[in-house]
Specification:
Blueprint (H helix, E strand, L loop, with lengths): L1 H7 L4 H5 L7 E2 L4 E5 L6 E5 L2 H5 L11 H5 L1 H12 L9 E6 L6 E9 L2 E8 L9 H11 L3 H16 L3 E7 L5 E8 L11 E2 L6 H9 L2 E4 L7 E5 L23 H10 L3 E9 L2 E10 L7 H45 L4 H6 L13 E6 L2 E6 L4 H12 L8 E3 L13 H4 L1 E7 L5 E7 L4 E6 L6 E3 L6 E3 L5 E6 L8 H76 L4 H26 L5 E3 H18 L4 E7 L3 E3 H21 L7 E9 L5 E7 L15 H12 L3 E5 L13 E6 L3
Parallel strand pairs: 24-26
Antiparallel strand pairs: 1-11, 2-3, 2-6, 3-11, 4-5, 5-6, 7-8, 7-13, 8-9, 10-12, 12-13, 14-15, 14-18, 16-17, 17-18, 19-22, 20-21, 23-25, 26-27, 27-29, 28-29
Helix pairs in contact: 6-7, 6-10, 7-10, 10-14, 14-15, 15-16, 15-17, 16-17, 17-18
Length: 742
């Protein structure tokens, strides 16, 4: 509208403000009464009401409503008013005789502006719906395209009404109109099919009336208007403004009359096509001569148009669904990618399916935290930020905003028309500072207008009055800087995607808060654990230290006790007990002297243990060599202590029995890691060997201890000769303990 007005230099605001709903007059083919809703007394009437109702002029004041329209209609009006069933868009309809003259009248009654309005028109007889109506409804129901649906509708309505031209006029998003279907007499010129009309041809306030009152019939453009008369003013005649928004007899505005004269239209109709509660378009009838369409036929026309609108919704919804289904699938795949990713921006811009795949866009961008992430063919990041900022100013209530003419938002964007003539943006995030934006390139269009759209009006000589344009000749315009328009479903999918991103952000923030909370709990537990570990470490060191001291004390007592015994065998038993206690004491000493309180480096311990045993034997007068080989091994204390006691028993037995008294010899101790993760302990010698029929359980206390400890460790205990028999010996002895993996 700004372009049209500025090109002509005319201010179209007066056209927009014309009070067409209160013309102060009616058309003369019927009469109107405005009633007080409580008393049903006449407050205002059209000047021709007395004549139509058969009441002498000036005698209307003294008549009851029943005397004017009949008691039966009065009762129906009272019942409908009580039930609040006098809607302007769906008035009470009745046919009856006027008591004043017996004429048959068609009545329409509605309530508006605090008054009950009764309209009456002559009717020859009670009318039935045309016989063609059911067949037409079936044909409309079966139409599967807008073109076929429009053709069937205009043909049926022209046949029914007798208009010389019937056309369907569709509004675009800027309220410009296009004739998408037309049926007319062959000699009626010009043909309007395919022509576009500027939105100023049907101004805003007229469109608002069409959205509320869905039918408008004008039998005779040039018929003299009938003024409204207020009963309170009597003969003075002029009535206060009466809102005739829903009145079918409402007189035409001067601009509308002039427009019809310029079109050479006398009789006319306009019936609203409503889709989802919004004015989609009009079904328009033109006649060069006056033409009165009977009320019953008008009803049939409105039913046909309603059927057209219902089928239109189904046809366009099906077409929309077919077009949008591919993009619904892309939307679903983008959601899947986001669900499986930590970074939703990367999921939208670098996944197998990207944001640019939606809506057949040439390119797209994600604006997140002030950073711009581009995908496809787009303007530069800086230009994208400027476009997003400009579109943000157009946002209404957080809904997506779309334009097929980005240069219309700002002329500075015209230079990007090759990549971004159109844009769709949706905003998300806690403060809606982040955005998704899609771009479409320029698509050059050629539009045929019904007259020059740059001259929507003409100015009366002297510039005192704006008149509708007079020329409707075909005028072709080439549109540059426009992209393909964005269907409504693209905005719905964009809004859904932004909502999903909001949920991802909220979910990530919630998860981050939960993780931070758990991290704080873990950190607190870790601190507490560290304190407990320090305390435990100190306690274990103290325990091991005290156990070691206690064991050393016991060992010393055993040694002192043994020294005072004369019997060699008893003294040796005390010595064995001393060694056993010392073995365990040495292990506890290692535990409190190292950082590890629950395990011991057994290879190192084994060397120390064998050194202690060797020194003990030297003190007993025996000189044997102990050879120790051990693989690195860290064993828990519950395995190391039994294994150490086994070593003590086997080495001690070798000292006692492997070699004859006074003889020299070697004892081999090895501890090797096995392939299965276990360990093999071997104590062997080259001495006299095992006695015939040797059985550990039949031996002394030492062998009994070894056997018992092997069972405790789930270890396999084996014994036998260490080598072949030589010089009458039995090949020495070999004891092997196979320790399973921990």
């Amino acid at each position: 509208m700004e372009r049209l007005a500025s090109s002509q230099g005319a201010d179209l605001t007066p056209c927009e403000l014309e009070p067409i709903h209160i013309p102060g007059a009616t058309q003369p083919h019927g009469a109107l009464l405005a009633l007080d809703p409580e008393s049903l007394s006449v407050v205002i009437h059209s000047g021709n009401a007395p004549g139509l109702l058969g009441i002498p002029l000036g005698d209307l004041r003294g008549r009851t409503l029943g005397q004017l329209v009949g008691d039966a209609l009065v009762e129906r009006i009272r019942e409908a008013a009580k039930a609040d069933d006098l809607d302007g868009a769906n008035p009470l309809r009745a046919i009856g005789e006027a008591p004043g003259n017996g004429s048959c009248l068609d009545y329409a009654v509605h309530r508006h502006g605090g008054l009950i309005i009764v309209e009456a028109e002559p009717a020859d007889a009670p009318e039935s719906l045309p016989a063609m109506l059911p067949r037409t409804m079936v044909r409309l129901r079966d139409a599967d395209s807008l073109a076929e649906l429009g053709r069937l509708t205009v043909e049926a309505i022209r046949h029914l009404t007798g208009y010389e031209r019937v056309l369907i006029y569709r509004f675009d998003p800027e309220w410009n109109g296009e004739a998408i279907a037309e049926d007319k007499l062959a000699d009626l010129e010009p043909a309007l099919l395919g022509l576009h009309f500027p939105q100023s041809d049907i101004p805003r306030q007229a469109r608002e009336l069409y959205a509320r009152n869905h039918s408008r019939f004008v039998p005779d453009r040039d018929a003299e208007r009938v003024p409204l008369v207020a009963m309170a003013f009597g003969s003075r005649g002029e009535a206060p403004p009466l809102d005739l928004t829903f009145a079918r007899l409402r007189a035409l505005s001067p601009v509308h009359l002039e427009y019809h004269r310029n079109l050479n239209v006398n009789g006319s109709m306009s019936v609203s096509v409503m889709k989802h509660g919004r004015l989609w378009g009009l079904v328009i009838g033109h006649h060069r001569e006056p033409l009165l369409v009977p009320p019953g036929v008008r009803t049939a026309v409105t039913l046909m148009v309603d059927a057209f609108a219902m089928r239109l919704t189904e046809v366009e919804t099906t077409a929309d669904w077919d077009e949008r289904q591919e993009h619904v699938d892309i939307h679903a795949r983008l959601l899947e990618q986001m669900a499986g990713a930590d970074d939703f921006v990367g999921a939208l811009t670098r996944g197998p399916v990207t944001l640019a795949g939606l809506f057949d866009a040439g390119g797209a961008a994600v604006i997140r935290g002030g950073s711009v992430h581009l995908v496809g063919e787009t303007p530069s990041a800086g230009d994208v930020m400027e476009m997003v900022a400009a579109l943000r100013q157009k946002v209404d209530g957080g809904h997506p905003v779309a334009t097929d003419h980005l240069a219309g938002v700002s002329l500075g964007f015209a230079g990007h028309s090759g990549l971004a003539s159109g844009a769709l943006a949706v905003f998300f995030g806690p403060d809606h500072r982040d955005a998704l934006i899609w771009f479409r390139p320029e698509v050059t269009r050629t539009i045929s207008w019904g007259g020059d759209p740059n001259k929507p009006v003409s100015i009366e000589a002297g510039g005192t009055r704006i008149l509708p344009r007079r020329s409707f000749e075909r005028w072709t315009e080439r549109m540059r800087g426009y992209s393909r328009p964005w269907p409504s479903w693209t905005l719905e999918i964009a809004h859904s995607l932004a909502h999903a991103i909001d949920e991802v952000i909220v979910r990530h923030q919630r998860k981050l808060a939960e993780l931070n909370g758990k991290l704080r709990e873990i950190e607190a537990l870790a601190v507490e654990k560290d304190v407990l570990l320090v305390q435990k470490d100190m306690l274990m060191r103290e325990v091991n230290h005290r156990v070691k001291n206690s064991l050393h004390m016991i060992a010393s007592l055993l040694s002192l006790q043994g020294d005072g015994i004369d019997d060699p065998e008893t003294r040796r038993q005390f010595a064995d007990a001393h060694n056993r206690v010392s073995t365990v004491a040495q292990l506890h000493q290692r535990l409190y002297q190292t950082d590890k309180l629950q395990s011991v480096e057994f290879d190192q311990y084994l060397h120390g243990l064998c050194d202690d045993l060797s020194e003990f034997m030297l003190s007993e007068g025996e000189e044997y060599t102990i050879e120790v080989t051990a693989d690195p091994a860290e064993l828990s204390t519950d395995r190391a202590i039994p294994l150490a006691l086994i070593v003590n028993e086997l080495v001690t037995n070798a000292f006692k029995y492997a070699y004859p008294p006074g003889a020299e010899g070697t004892i081999q101790v090895s501890f090797t890691r096995q392939e299965n993760g276990g360990y093999l302990l071997v104590v062997a010698d080259d001495g006299v060997g095992l006695p015939a029929g040797f059985q550990p359980l039949n031996g002394g206390l030492g062998m009994t201890i070894v056997t018992s400890l092997c069972l405790q460790l789930s270890a396999n205990f084996a014994y036998g000769a260490n080598g072949p028999v030589k010089n009458g010996t039995r090949g020495g002895a070999r004891f092997a303990v196979s320790l399973p993996p921990a």
